[in-house]
Amino acid sequence: MNWDQIEGNWKQFKGQVREKWGELSDDDVERINGKRDQLSGILQRKLGLAKEAAEQQIAEFETSLKA
Predict the structure, then answer these.
(1) DSSP conformational letter for 10
(2) What is the pTM of this model?
(3) How confident is the model at residue 2 (pLDDT cuts 50, 70, 90)?
């Protein structure tokens, strides 16, 4: 699954995002609104991740949705 599909169906994926990144608040998930760059930025701020680490986690999340 690519990010365009996730963004287009964001309401369906919000729960999975919260499950994967339990540290994110409801407000964080709403603010992301399906935008990959928003998710990356919030992961960097909230979890203290480097940009590369945040992008890696997002890529792993995308891959997990293909199954």
Answers:
(1) H
(2) 0.91
(3) confident
- Using an 8 Å Cβ cutoff, are 51 and 44 in contact? yes
> How far is residue 56 from each of residues 36, 46, 60, 61, 65, measured CA to CA in Å?
12, 16, 6, 9, 14
- Tell me which long-range contacts 31-38 makes (C-beta under 8 A, separation of at least 24): 34/6, 34/7, 34/8, 34/10, 35/7, 36/3, 36/6, 36/7
As a whole number of angstroms, the distance between CA 46 and CA 2 comes to 24
Alpha helices in the chain (DSSP H): 3-8, 10-20, 26-32, 36-47, 51-66
Percent of the chain with pLDDT over 90: 93
